[in-house]
Design goal:
Strand content: 25-35%
CATH class of the largest domain: Alpha Beta
CATH topology of the largest domain: Molybdenum Cofactor Biosythetic Enzyme, Chain A
CATH architecture of the largest domain: 3-Layer(aba) Sandwich
CATH superfamily of the largest domain: MoaB/Mog-like domain
Distance between the termini: 45 Å
Shape: elongated
Radius of gyration: 31 Å
Number of strands: 26
Helix content: 10-25%
Largest sheet: 6 strands, mixed
Bound molecules: adenosine monophosphate, magnesium ion
Number of helices: 7
Number of domains: 4
């Protein structure tokens, strides 16, 4: 039988990723609502950009042959959007051009600061222009048919600008997974609830997860928190429209850890039962017979959010057709660290960038998994491999930067 417990982080992640694949692409308008969506097709240019040889300056288009010093006869004008329609200027002829206007064939541009004009006669100071002077060649930005954005790229403002300049008004993108979030626990109440008793705890993971899911391209479906009751858990999840269900709390093996036993009644097949991870050991993952995937997160805020960074983020990436790998960055320890135990440890840290370009990581002295205040002050998670030796300050560690606004 496959081992489900105490899996190394990498293996747990690989098992989860093996259970998801991107959905059927949909066609959307490439307007601001496309922000964050992932291309399911490459974007190729529908034509050359610029589509004509364009002037980079206000000035005069002059043919490259002819006697430079004799002066030129003005035979027309080319403005942006209103190109010169006559025959290309011959020796001794010139066309007035403005920035962004089409430059007649065989011409270069002399800036207007070097020209003196009397009626339709123009003289220029200085040396004759060289080939291409002040001309942006047709196709100089990109060529028709050139692939500008590959599939799998997430759209941001600059990529949307590129697709627009390439002439694309719509594109196929991967669907955004819907992710239901269910906080569980007798003690959990929504922030803002009237007269909370001392026995109650405000739900901090629910809002954090909804926000992270939206930030990572998913569509959060927040559900009302439920009590520690199998019936309540099943009722809350009954018929919920989501590809992925994230449960919070009740993930361990205590008498009130009822999420897995409840879902077992629906036919939950576990792929991951526990992970060699600190914090976040009770994180689990499985599939339901209706095709829904379930990620079970521990209730302690730091455990849930570390597990979300390590597993939920890559899951959502893979669901949207994006490479789920997240390259780690490096930092120098500001303080020494003790040897790590048998579990891979992801420590909350504050980063300070140094004048020499390096980044130093201050790991918080109290790494207890319940501390929301520490997580809220952290910029990064420092990775300490299982069984890693003690480190002196100044040594280099791997870290995952947390996206802070
Ligand atoms: P559990 O994973 O259910 O054993 O919960 C572990 C700890 O996390 C307990 O102290 C809970 O009160 C707390 N906790 C569980 N769920 C949440 C939540 N959604 N928001 C904040 N704290 C929670
Ligand atoms: Mg609980």
């Amino acid at each position: 039988m496959t081992q489900l417990r105490d899996l190394p982080v990498e293996e747990a992640r690989a098992r989860m990723l093996g259970a998801v694949s991107p959905g059927v692409p949909e066609l959307i308008l490439l307007d601001r609502h496309a922000l964050g969506r992932v291309l399911a097709e490459p974007i190729a240019a529908v034509r050359d950009q610029p589509p004509f040889d364009a002037s980079a300056m206000d000035g005069y288009a002059v043919p490259l042959e002819g006697v430079w010093t004799a002066g030129f006869q003005l035979i027309g004008e080319s403005a942006a959007g209103r190109p010169y329609a006559g025959a290309a200027p011959r020796a001794g002829e010139t066309v007035r051009v403005f920035t962004g206007a089409s430059v007649p064939e065989g011409c270069a541009v002399v800036v207007q600061e070097r020209a003196s004009r009397e009626s339709d006669h123009v003289r220029f100071e200085g040396a004759p222009p060289s080939i291409g002077a002040h001309v942006r060649a047709r196709g100089g930005d990109f060529r028709r048919g050139e692939i500008l954005l590959p599939a799998g790229v997430r759209l941001d403002a600059w990529r949307l600008a590129l697709a627009a300049s390439a002439g694309r008004g719509e594109a196929l993108v991967f669907p955004q997974p819907r992710v239901a979030i269910l906080s569980t626990g007798e003690e959990i109440v929504r922030a803002g609830a009237a007269d909370p008793s001392d026995a109650q705890i405000f739900d901090s993971n629910g809002p954090a997860l909804s926000t992270l899911i939206a930030q990572w391209g998913g569509r959060p479906v927040p559900l009302d928190a439920v009590r520690d009751s199998q019936a309540a858990i099943l009722a809350a999840l009954d018929g919920v429209a989501a590809e992925l269900i994230v449960t919070v709390g009740g993930a361990s093996v205590g008498d009130y850890d009822l999420v897995k036993p409840a879902l077992a009644k629906l036919g939950l097949e576990l792929l991951v039962e526990t992970i060699r991870l600190r914090p976040g050991k009770p994180t689990w993952f499985g599939t339901l017979p209706n095709g829904q995937r379930v990620l079970g997160l521990p209730g302690n805020p730091a455990s849930g959010l570390v597990a979300a960074e390590l597993f939920l983020r890559p899951l959502l990436a893979a669901w949207q057709g994006v490479d789920p790998a997240f390259p780690l960055e490096h930092a120098r320890l500001a303080e020494p660290l003790e040897a790590t135990g048998p579990r891979e440890h992801w420590m909350r840290a504050r980063l300070v960038s140094q004048a020499d370009g390096s980044v130093s990581a201050h790991t918080f002295p109290d790494q207890d998994s319940s501390l929301v205040s520490v997580f809220a002050a952290a910029d990064a998670l420092v990775r300490r491999p299982a069984g890693a030796p003690a480190l002196a300050s100044g040594e280099v560690v791997e870290m995952l930067r947390l996206k802070r606004l």
